[in-house]
Amino acid sequence: MMAYAPIVLFVYNRSWHTKRTIEALQKNELAGESELYIYSDAPKNKEDEKRVREVRSYIHKIDGFKKVTIIEREKNLGLAGSIIDGVTKVVNEYGKVIVLEDDLVTSPYFLRFMNDALEYYEDEKRVWHISGWNYPIKIKTEETNRVFLWRVMNCWGWATWADRWQFFEKDTEKLMREFSNEAIRKFNLDGVENFWEQVVLNKEGKIDTWAIYWYATIFKQQGLCLNPVRTFVDNIGFDGSGVHCSKKSFVDNIQTEYSIQFTKNIEETEVYTKAIKKYLRKGILTRVKRLIPIWK
């Protein structure tokens, strides 16, 4: 019998989002067989104290899982610090982990997909990361049950193994020394996006994040990330309530059935990588068009 990966959920001060995240997770078919760890960060100021208490009051009433363990931080670590610490502790204990934040609504088959992928690719050391989310690219009906591999790491519902996570490193100065201009271009999805800007902003102290360093770790090791073609996760945090979220609409067509076909071809899947590049270029063009009246 498969030993299911523990779920690690990071929460802060958004009770409405946390409830939606938990309610969706409780509807997963493997919820009752999965252990749930909830890390609740401490308030960073007086204004957040009441809302953090509300979240903590709610999470202590949660059931529907094999076991629920709550870790209440006594000091505010920030999202990056809390995730790095929590993921490291749990993945080192269990050998694998599924990670969520408090604004992610999952398909009832999210846990099934993550556990199946963790088992399928456990011994395939070129696969470093399992994503539950995918960009809303146009796909044909027969593609809905497929997966693909590519270089970019998505962190809206993800999983990994301890023997991969052990290489995680958050060292901005070292990273900037190691990456050539050619490497940065490839890191930026061949110039389509500007992921590297996050590294620069961390160096300047304007943001304090973790995900860009996990992507950089995977990239340096020439690892690949697995994505479902059709997403198992929807992000509900784009309402201005999150630490790193702006106010915008982002709606995905979430998976409502499960019949996944995993790929044995361990290399970047060109057709879906191109589709995402096209989607991202379209978004860039839209943003540019909005700015044209200002330029005029």
Looking at the structure, the CATH topology is: Spore Coat Polysaccharide Biosynthesis Protein SpsA, Chain A
Question: Count of DSSP E strands?
Answer: 10
What is the SS-derived class?
A: alpha/beta
- Proportion of residues in extended strands: 15-25%
| Tally of separate domains | 1
Q: Give the low-pLDDT segments.
A: 242-252, 287-296
Largest sheet: 8 strands, mixed
Q: How many helix segments? A: 10
* Mean pLDDT over the residues: 91
Q: Superfamily at the CATH H level?
A: Spore Coat Polysaccharide Biosynthesis Protein SpsA, Chain A
Based on the structure given, which CATH architecture is correct? Alpha-Beta Complex
Can you describe what's shown?
With 296 residues, the chain is α/β, with parallel strands linked by helices. It has a single domain, classed as Spore Coat Polysaccharide Biosynthesis Protein SpsA, Chain A (Alpha-Beta Complex). The protein has ten helices and ten strands. It has helices spanning 15-26, 46-59, 78-94, 110-120, 162-165, 172-178, 181-187, 196-203, 211-220, 270-295, and strands at 7-11, 35-40, 67-72, 96-101, 104-106, 127-131, 147-150, 158-161, 224-228, 233-235. The strands form two sheets. The protein has an eight-stranded mixed β-sheet with strand order 3-2-1-4-8-6-9-7, with helices on both faces. Strands 5-10 form a two-stranded antiparallel ribbon. The longest helix is centred in the last third of the chain and has 26 residues, at 270-295. It is globular, with a radius of gyration of 19 Å. The termini are far apart. Mean pLDDT is 91; it is low at 242-252 and 287-296.
